[in-house]
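Annex B. Sample input.
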Amino acid sequence: MNVMIAAATGGFGNMLRDTAETFGWNPGLFLSQVISFVIVALLLRRFAYKPILNVLHERRERIEESLRNAEKIKQQLAEAEKRYAEILAKGNADAQKMIDEARESSSHVADRKMQEAIVAAEQIIAKAREASALERERTMAELKRQLGRLVVETTAKVTGKVLTSEDQRRLQEEAARQLAS
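Annex B, continued. Sample output.
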């Protein structure tokens, strides 16, 4: 069995050697290429791959921060819109209150002016009544004098005698009493 394994192993080794010679494989050159590849890979990892990864990591963090900031801005905008709506509602309520107060004030002013006008009209009417009463009394007094004079003149003409001042006074008083009743 060992012979078979040795034959198989030896045959495999020969086959590898034949294949390497066919393709022009050189173990020293291969080893130097592996070492060169490892050095280039380490250099790329240190000077190219890590900085690129760092830049990508920083960029990812900036993007995440920008997204967080955008969310904060969205919240601030929503809060600002809410405050704007509250301020607008408060302003509208204040404006409506001022309008209502102005209406109420104008209503009170109109009522007060109306009452002042009524008082002024009543005063004018009272003065007119007073003036009318005074004029009536003056006219009545004038009528009584005129009537008394007419009665005296008529009596003097009818009787044909001259009346004394006592007769004139008595006739005027009788005429005034009859007019008063």
